[in-house]
Predict the 3D structure of the following.
Amino acid sequence: MKTDTLFTKPISKQFEFDADVAAVFDDMLIRSVPFYKESQSLTRRFALNALEKGGIVYDLGCSTASLLLEIERSIDERSAIRLIGIDNSAAMIEHARKKIEAYGSGIELYEGDILSFPYEKAQVIVSNYTLQFIRPMLRDTLVRTISDALDEGGVFIFSEKVVSEDPKLNKELIDCYYDFKKVQGYSEYEIVQKREALENVLIPYTMNENILMAKNSGFKTCEVLFRWANFATFIAIK
């Protein structure tokens, strides 16, 4: 796994999921997302709870397919579960393909737009730190599309960076997060560089805004499975 050193030099463009990011993405996630493995473990557990024989799981913004590989390792080969990853980054899909070939995996991968993908009816849809990169005017539409693509009783599990409704607390949450990144080996300079690269690219909602968005899009329940400071994992049930 290649170490993330992308922001040790001055940035020249806004953040995008290009070949440079894809090459270090697995390391970036572990070092940039607090309790990432624990959150992924919860996602896998609740996804498996919702799956039945012959069901479909979609991972929207699947990046390098790490979560789908974890789910695949936990299911019976005879269950005929289809695991489908979608990402609009050709570089991410390329890295994911290398992984699934190395593991002899049956995961299906598609380079495409999650806003217009022709979804089949699914039991589980997952989205890890993906909605926050969708423009707010399109985000509600995407979540409605996700709801429509799920079977009754199906689940949508999504992780997002969140903001607080209280400005003072929000600053404290951000400071807490930056301290976490420093412990992971990122310098103050790298943290500032990445923050500037993500400005107006990553647009987070509050916890309540995420829950309301899900409920307004056809989900009967939406709750928080896990939260650490300004990172949260939600489960919405149709």
About this structure: Residues 12 and 197 are 9 Å apart (CA to CA). The radius of gyration is 17 Å. The beta strands are 56-60, 82-87, 108-111, 122-128, 150-163, 205-206, 221-228, 231-237.
